[in-house]
Amino acid sequence: MANLSAWEAALDDLEIRLDAAALSMAVGRSDSEAGSVGSGGVATGSTGEGGGVITPVEAAWTAPKGLGAIPAELAARVQDLLHNQQKLINELERARTLTLKHLTAVRSVPPERDARASVYLDVAG
After folding, report:
1. Per its UniProt entry, which superkingdom is the organism in (predicted)?
2. pTM tops 0.70
């Protein structure tokens, strides 16, 4: 059963990290936009009750060692986690694309010119 409890702890950690990432994406959005993230099903509802030690989400993730094969009774949970991770990846890609569009628009605005500076126009050239 050590394999099962180790896998549960590892999945708890991944679910907490996924929830934290989804939450951090929603923080900067308006209430109507944040609601769309929740409706996307990204939140996993993880509570960390697996009995394992949960590392802080700020810490860099490292793959656990020595877990062995995924126990069959956790297969559905692993599939759910994978599905929710893919949803978050898609949300991140959409946010990245939108950010690049905004950045392009901001960069297209010419810098403010000093009104006291002279402006010359060469009409002959």
Report:
1. Bacteria
2. no
